[in-house]
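Thread: quick sanity check before group meeting

JM: Hey all, I'm pulling together slides for Thursday and realized we never actually wrote out the predicted structure for the chain we discussed last week. Dropping the sequence here so it's in one place. If anyone has concerns about the input, flag it before I start.
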Amino acid sequence: MGRLEEQDFDEKRLARRQRRKKSQLMALIILITTLVIVIAAGAFGVYSIRKVTSARKAEKEEAAAIASSENQEVVIETPQETTPEPEVMTSGDVLEEIVNSCISELTLEEKVAGLFMVSPEQITGVATVVKAGSSTQDALSKYAIGGLYYSAKNIKSQEQISEMIKNTTDMSKYPIFTAIMEDGSGNGAIAASVGGLEIGEVNNSDTAYNAGSAVGSAMFKYGFNFCIAPDLDITENGRYGTEMETVADISVSMTSALHDSGVTACVYQFPVCGDTKSAMVSNEMTKEELTTTAYVVYQRAIGDGGTGAVMMSNVSFPTITGDNTPASLSKVMISDELRGMLGYDGLVLTGPLNEGAITENYSSEEAAVNAITAGADMLFLPADFEQAYQGVLEAVQNGVITEDRINESLKRIYRLKYSGKVDEIK
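JM (edit): ok, ran it. Output follows.
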């Protein structure tokens, strides 16, 4: 064999060897692939079998649970009833509910009329009223006034006054103040008419309490519930002298005694009195002077005595107010001094609006509107009741006075009227 032939033979043998290796490699790949497929298929089969088995087991357990629940008695627990604790209302809460309820039922006309304390003659037109008859009934049906003020001429006997007051309160649609001025002296309405008040000199706390108890008992027996007393004037004309501490002690004891008897005490006249019946009177006292004298007495009556009401003076105090406006009509004296500085939030009654200090400078309408605007709650004895009433009513209707302002005063009035009756209502 030649060299070329040998070379050709070697190349063919190498080619066959390479083809054989290639065939072996392909066979190995196919084998591995087949094994992978078989293993995967087996694993999937096991997973499927487990899944089916688990599902069947779950179905059996659910069926068993249902069967078990059907065989058992179902017990439904009744929720335990909890009784809420009753809301505890204080006497103050009850009083506020009563007051708000009363005011909500009033018409505007009734609200305005409720701000007035007048004499029985002013609403009936009768010269001297000594019994409550048809004229009183007609007047009270037309005007739901807040209070009636009686003087000695209205009292003829104990039986007469008792019957008149009872009939009057029965005729009134709403609670009414039945007022007199009485401190046990000879000038009081009861003492000057039917007597029966044996009161000696009032010069300290003890004698003042005894006097207040005697006055309060007599008033309560006759049907009166509002006493304009004691007089807190500490000038030379004052009822109890000029000693500030003594007058303060008397005011506390007498107001306490009146309240203990079921009668509202109205101290007067803030800050000091003056002869204002015929003309205007100006007082030049400074605020500093009042603060160390009259204000001390009133502060005691308000704080320690718990006075139910304060009557304003018709004196003017230009040094404090900057003008000659009577205290009864002055916002400075009522709202700033009495309410603001002394902290008084009770009922404020004007001085008599039929005095010269008022009538010479203001019409009945002007005086009434100015007093309410200044902060007064009740209008005492206007010169012309009907004109004063219409003046306030129109002022509210025209927006000069808001109805909220009227309600504010009515709340103070009704708190006093019902304050002693809360326990009965509760």
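AS: nice. The chain has a mean pLDDT of 87. The CA atoms of residues 99 and 415 lie 6 Å apart.
JM: adding both to the slides.
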